[in-house]
Task: inverse folding
């Protein structure tokens, strides 16, 4: 019985020990489970804190995903801890405190609230972050206390289990493994979050690099109007040294730097800018054109503005991307084309060139200058025929200044220097020292300084190498500066004005000569002269018609060049090319009419001689015609080094006429040959083509105007003036043209030119005697 009782005691003791061990193990597992749940809850709060901080600093919504997950999990995890610690009142008190903290932080949270929090961070980052830190620190204190409580319980139960077969060690190992597993899981989550953060930063750097390399100005603007990104082009166009300096400025500070107007010249309110419309929910794809300048005296610029929205997940615009392009050069070029057309119309309106030049001078102010003057050479005198100023009251002052202090004829700059040298002048900034040097006394200097001269362009009015006068443009009160583009435009205007002066003077000379001759004739001679004049009237009319047609044709040519650049389709380009070709052909006809007028009325075609390389001229003409007739062969031979004292432009016209005729009328199956040869006395240029000969009965009239052989089924491409003008040019050089044409040998034109002025003079005298 004692043994049985002992065995029973042992059995009961073993059972008690087993139950106690099992209970100890259960409580140890229970403690571990509580600690794991606390650790999971702590990890959830850590993920939420990290995600929220990332969003508040970057504004990137992907950072809110761990925060949203924490909001979904924390209450369930907290309830699990509550259930596990329901037998521990102290832990229940701590859990209620923790629940209140988390309710305050998580409850009612939304993307809108997150946005407001981020805006608070933008305004007061330290205060907002300290507020979030206090909440999370309080939560961590509660969790730490709970962890401490569980650790103490774990120690108590561990000692009890240790006394029972060392199971505590197993429990500790298991707990350690669980802890390590939790730590590994948390580390993995952190690594994923870091990868996401780095990827977002890399994308942002890439966008900045792309925008920085674009010529157009690009900025990013938030709903408050604050710029949060700008590329270098935007900073440059807005007038800041760097993008950083632009971003540091407020919206009001930026707008106060400018005067802004719309295309009609009306003030452009800041609230109508495209970005304001986009952020207000009124996006548009249409670009807005504005005219602006920095300050009250800066140069005017044109810009094209567009804005594009950046939306959130709900489709609401939260930012606006501004794209603006400087179109000043395009607008200036367009304005100058329009001005040139208006100027051509004025120059065509009358043969009184002084009146038309005065009208053109008025047109230039203030579009192209603050002050414009036109001076014309009459005999040995210089006459100012037009003056225009932005301030009409100063016109008289300028005239008085010129009267009291006439310009020095030997001056190295100014109107007289331009007329003397035939060279244009450009002074982007007129040096103060130059003005002082030009002043003759203190009063003269005071009057000059009162004009506030700043920038200057002067160009000669020249045609055919002869300077007729000069036109000058000055910038003063406006503070604008001239450049190379302005000089090129001034030259184009001067060329057209010089042509109008030449034609008007030619007409006057003809009228004066006719009146003088008529005054000296008898009645019978006057009748004969009137009959001759009727025949010559047609030629005079042709000359005037040629003058009146040239300027409209110039306008057509300018327009076709513009349309070439704007053409988008092959059909459009073909139509433009057809118009351009027709206008070019008409322009050549007009040039021939004017040459006819000079030859028959004005005493012959004028030539401006200088030493020239004949081989180079013929080579250039042949190359040009090879491009114009790609399917034809031109065999060109000649010795280099042949020179003559002649008019380069006129001889090129002769060679082009003769070789062009050979290509047009010759046999396409055979080449056109061109040969240049010469000796000490003369030069021979021979142009030959095979094909149908010129009719023998037409040869005596070959060089008369408006005469050309009639070829069945052939369509005329000219006025029949080419050979007439060719002979007139050759005769003006003292030479002559020979022609032979047979079925067997084809057609050959030979131009014989003397190589010296003495030869030319002798030839001209011989023609006069004969």
Result:
């Amino acid at each position: 019985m004692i043994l049985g009782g002992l065995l029973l005691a042992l059995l009961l003791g073993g059972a008690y020990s087993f139950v106690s061990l099992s209970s100890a193990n259960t409580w140890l597992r229970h403690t571990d489970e509580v600690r794991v749940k606390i650790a999971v809850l702590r990890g959830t709060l850590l993920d939420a804190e990290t995600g929220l901080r990332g969003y508040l600093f970057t504004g990137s919504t992907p950072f809110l995903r761990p925060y949203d997950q924490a909001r979904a999990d924390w209450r369930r995890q907290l309830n699990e801890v509550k259930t596990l610690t329901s037998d521990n009142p102290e832990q229940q008190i701590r859990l209620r405190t923790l629940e209140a903290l988390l309710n305050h932080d998580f409850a009612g949270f939304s993307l809108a609230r997150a946005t407001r929090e981020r805006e608070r961070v933008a305004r007061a980052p330290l205060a907002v972050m300290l507020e979030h830190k206090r909440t999370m620190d309080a939560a961590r204190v509660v969790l730490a206390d709970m962890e401490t409580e569980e650790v103490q319980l774990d120690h108590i139960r561990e000692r009890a289990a240790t006394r029972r077969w060392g199971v505590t060690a197993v429990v500790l190992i298991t707990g350690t493994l669980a802890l390590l597993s939790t730590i590994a899981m948390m580390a993995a989550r952190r690594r994923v979050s870091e990868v996401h953060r780095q990827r977002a930063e890399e994308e942002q750097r890439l966008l900045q690099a792309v925008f920085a390399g674009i010529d157009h100005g690009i900025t990013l603007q938030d709903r408050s109007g604050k710029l949060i990104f700008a590329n270098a082009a935007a900073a440059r166009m807005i007038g800041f040294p760097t993008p950083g300096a632009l971003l540091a400025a407020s919206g009001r500070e930026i707008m106060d730097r400018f005067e802004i107007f719309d295309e009609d010249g009306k003030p452009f309110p800041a609230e109508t800018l495209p970005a304001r419309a986009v952020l207000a929910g009124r996006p548009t794809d249409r670009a807005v054109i504005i005219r602006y300048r920095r300050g009250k005296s800066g140069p005017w610029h044109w810009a094209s503005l567009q804005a594009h929205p950046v939306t959130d997940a709900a489709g609401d615009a939260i930012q606006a991307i501004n794209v603006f392009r400087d179109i000043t050069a395009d607008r200036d070029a367009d304005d100058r084309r329009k001005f040139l057309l208006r100027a051509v119309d004025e120059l065509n309106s009358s043969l009184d060139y002084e009146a038309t030049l005065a009208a053109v001078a008025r047109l230039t102010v203030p579009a192209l200058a603050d002050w414009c003057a036109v001076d014309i050479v009459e005999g040995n005198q210089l006459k100012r025929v037009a003056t225009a100023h932005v301030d009409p009251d100063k016109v008289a002052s300028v005239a008085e200044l010129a009267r009291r202090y006439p310009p020095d004829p030997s001056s190295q700059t100014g109107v007289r220097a331009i007329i003397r040298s035939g060279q244009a002048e450009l002074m982007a900034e007129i040096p103060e020292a130059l003005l002082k040097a030009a002043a003759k006394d203190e009063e003269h200097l005071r009057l000059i300084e009162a004009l506030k001269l700043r920038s200057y362009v002067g160009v000669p009015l020249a045609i055919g190498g002869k300077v007729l006068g000069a036109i000058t443009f000055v910038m003063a009160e406006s503070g604008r500066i001239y450049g190379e583009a302005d000089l090129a435009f001034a030259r184009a205007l001067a060329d057209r004005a010089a042509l109008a002066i030449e034609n008007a003077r030619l007409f006057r000379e003809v009228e004066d000569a006719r009146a003088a001759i008529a005054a000296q004739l008898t009645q019978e001679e006057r009748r004969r002269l009137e009959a001759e004049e009727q025949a010559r009237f047609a030629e005079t009319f042709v000359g005037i018609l040629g003058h009146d047609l040239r300027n409209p044709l110039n306008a057509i040519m300018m327009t076709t060049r513009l349309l070439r650049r704007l053409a988008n389709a092959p059909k459009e380009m073909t139509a433009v090319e057809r118009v351009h070709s027709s206008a070019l052909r008409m322009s050549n006809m007009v040039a021939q009419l004017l040459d006819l007028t000079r030859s028959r009325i004005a005493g012959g075609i004028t030539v401006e001689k200088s030493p020239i390389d004949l081989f180079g001229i013929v080579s250039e003409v042949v190359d040009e015609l090879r491009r114009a007739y790609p399917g034809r062969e031109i065999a060109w031979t000649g010795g280099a080094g042949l020179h003559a004292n002649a008019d380069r432009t006129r001889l090129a016209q002769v060679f082009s006429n003769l070789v062009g005729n050979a290509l047009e009328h010759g046999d396409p199956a055979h080449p056109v040959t061109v040969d240049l040869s010469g000796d000490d006395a003369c030069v021979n240029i021979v142009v030959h083509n095979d094909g149908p000969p010129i009719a023998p009965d037409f040869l005596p009239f070959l060089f008369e105007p408006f005469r050309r052989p009639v070829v069945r089924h052939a369509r005329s491409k000219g006025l029949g003036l080419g050979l007439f003008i060719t002979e007139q040019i050759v005769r003006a050089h003292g030479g002559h043209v020979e022609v032979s044409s047979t079925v067997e040998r084809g057609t050959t034109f030979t131009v014989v030119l003397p190589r010296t002025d003495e030869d030319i003079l002798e030839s001209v005298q011989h023609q006069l005697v004969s």
Q: What stands out?
A: The chain has 23 helices and 18 strands. Confidence is low (pLDDT under 50) at residues 1-16, 543-548, 710-718, 757-770. Residues 734 and 759 are 7 Å apart (CA to CA). Residues 2-58 form the longest helix (57 residues).
